[in-house]
Structures are given as structure tokens and as C-alpha cells.
Amino acid sequence: MLLGVFDKQIEHSQLGIIQAGTLSYEYYWFDRWYNVFRFHEPDGTLRNYYCNVNMPPKLEGDVLSYVDLDIDVFVSKDFEAAVWDMDEFNENAARYKYPADIMSNAQEALSKVLHLIEGRAFPFNEVVP
């Protein structure tokens, strides 16, 4: 888990305005094809979750990197989930000729994330700090 703090206000095309001081609790697993960000407003209230479907990350020295596969899952503070950017994933899969294992791992990761959200399983069950 990493903790990020927005040092300035950001205007995100899908997430809207993210205020300076917003906290981002970021969950990464070296054996999973997704990550989860839990955003809290500067006053500590839950803002939303944002999940990326990606290839498992690698850590080299102090640098954590991963290949983002475009599929995102937005989860509101009321736990309404929306899948974003499937069209981008499908376009890039065709353009770059993703192998079958990438296609199946991405679809499986999306299913797992949606299942975790629905069941309020970790990290979607975290107590607000």
C-alpha cells in the first residue's frame, strides 16, 4: 500500500475536480492484474474508489511500474460501480494484437474487482482512517 497526497488541485476528465490535500490510498499486488485507489477528501471523508486493470506491477529500486490495460472501474462513495474504457481496451487489443493470456487475465481481473466491490471485500471494506 502506498499513500499519496495531492499537492495541488487537479481537474480530471472523468473524476472531476480533485482538491489539493486529497489522500490516495493505493493498493498494489505483485500477483494481481489490477490495483485499487481509495480517495479521501481533505477532511477525511471517502470520495471514491478508482481501479485499474493492468499487468502485475514491478518494483525496481524505488520505482513501481505497471502496464495499464485501459479498463477502469469507478466506485462511488455509495458503492455504485461503473466500468470505464472497455472500448479503449478493445481498440488497443486489436491494434497491438494482445495475446490470449493478456485478454483472459484482463477479463478475469475485471470480474474479480467487481466481485470484491459487490462483496465489500478488502480493500473495499477498509475503515476510514
Give a structural overview.
The structure is a single chain. A six-stranded antiparallel β-sheet has the order 1-4-5-6-9-10. A two-stranded antiparallel sheet has the order 2-3. A two-stranded antiparallel ribbon has the order 7-8. The model has no long low-confidence stretch (mean pLDDT 95). The protein has two helices and ten strands. The protein starts with a strand and ends in a 10-residue tail after the last helix. The chain is an alpha+beta fold and 129 residues long.
- Biggest pleated-sheet summary: 6 strands, antiparallel
Quantity of strands, as a count: 10
**Secondary structure: helix percent:** 10-25%
Q: Give the strand line-up of the largest sheet.
A: 1-4-5-6-9-10
Query: If you average the pLDDT, what whole number results?
Result: 95
Cα-to-Cα separation, first versus last residue: 14 Å
**Strand composition percent:** 35-45%
Q: Characteristics of this structure?
A:
129 residues; six-stranded antiparallel sheet; two-stranded antiparallel sheet; 24% helix
List the helices and strands and how they pair.
Elements: E1 2-5, E2 10-12, E3 16-18, E4 23-27, E5 34-40, E6 46-54, E7 58-60, E8 63-65, E9 68-76, E10 81-84, H1 86-96, H2 100-119
